[in-house]
Amino acid sequence: MDTRLQVHRDSLPIYDIVFERSFDSLADEVRALGTAGRRICIVTDSTVAGLYLDAVSSALTGCCRELTSFVFPAGEEQKNLDTVRALYEHLIKHQFDRKDMLAALGGGVVGDLCGFAAATYLRGIAFLQIPTTLLAQVDSSIGGKTGVDFDAYKNMVGAFHMPKLVYTNVETLRTLTEEQYSSGMGEIIKHGLIRDGDYYEWLRANQPAILKRDPSVCLEMIRRSDEIKRQIVEEDPTEQGARALLNFGHTAGHAIEKYMNFQMLHGHCVGLGLLAAVSISRERGYLTDGEEEEIRGLLKAYRMPVSVSGIDPEQILEATKNDKKMDGGQIRFILLRAIGDAYIDCTVTADEIRRGLAAVINNDRGGVLR
């Protein structure tokens, strides 16, 4: 199995995605970026620092002239401009210049924040991604979308800034909680549904090994998910068209996430939004009742919530209108023509959204989160 993918732009490779089962090759990969004589700052959060900062620091010490680390408190609530400001101050204090580099070590919050700081410090410096959560390994570390939350608005401030390298160590999955691990499956199942029906069937067939976190099976799963995202990102690097397909499940999902004050994990919210979009797709005649239930059953099999209580659907509907993915005042929904075939639709009505939300809010189908 190939353990390396290349992301291209205009037929030229711009960065590699490397899949390993340790940090043993990290130093060689970083040296190949020309870091000798440069500074590197490892950006991570307080949880990941306790697990992997020493190992990564040890690997990178001989790759650069000076190695520093910036550790901020763990949590989505830290993904804001105040934390970015503190990181800027750290970089200025250590005299980082345009040829130096940041290294994002952690999950999506760390990668998004570090990438945004790299995109804006001195009008842009290099950075690399070392994702340690399943969600980050298959989604946020790939494609160069960076950003932070602004007040209650998720990822409202951001920039496109491609990393120089994505280094995935699948062994980090062993330290994830069950909830964190299942959260990553929301994005993985999404990839199969929007682009690759065979991959969707593979996820169904390999569920026992994936739940056991078998390293070889997980490496294959992450590689296949990243290949789907790589293809879409190369088609549309700045989200002017096809890349919007990656937002399947995110319109309602982000609204639920915001309503729950970010106390629900992102991948779980995506799963709920995904089911709402699947319901609308079934109502329009694209999917069968059986396919809708099969998708719901797959999320449950991967220990994801398939319904949520205590939410006002009208407030969720209103929140979708503030989503950054609006198009000319119209809500831009991603729907399915079939499993593995997604499309962009700007004609979804408020009543359709209400009925889609009814499939996941205040029902008795199990998996309720309170």
CATH architecture of the largest domain: Up-down Bundle
Mean pLDDT metric: 92
Instruction: Work out the helix count.
Output: 14
Order of helices and strands: EEHEHEHEHEHEEEHHHHHHHEHEEHE
Q: Which CATH class of the largest domain?
A: Mainly Alpha
Brief sketch in words of this structure:
This protein has helices at 26-31, 46-60, 81-93, 108-120, 134-140, 178-195, 197-205, 207-211, 215-235, 250-259, 266-283, 289-301, 313-320, 350-358, and strands at residues 4-9, 12-20, 39-45, 66-72, 101-106, 126-131, 145-150, 153-160, 165-169, 307-308, 333-338, 341-345, 368-369. It is an alpha/beta fold.
Task: Output the keywords.
Rossmann fold, three-stranded mixed β-sheet, alpha/beta, 2 domains, globular, 13 strands, Dehydroquinate synthase-like, alpha domain, single chain, 14 helices, disordered C terminus, 45% helix, four-stranded parallel β-sheet, 370 residues
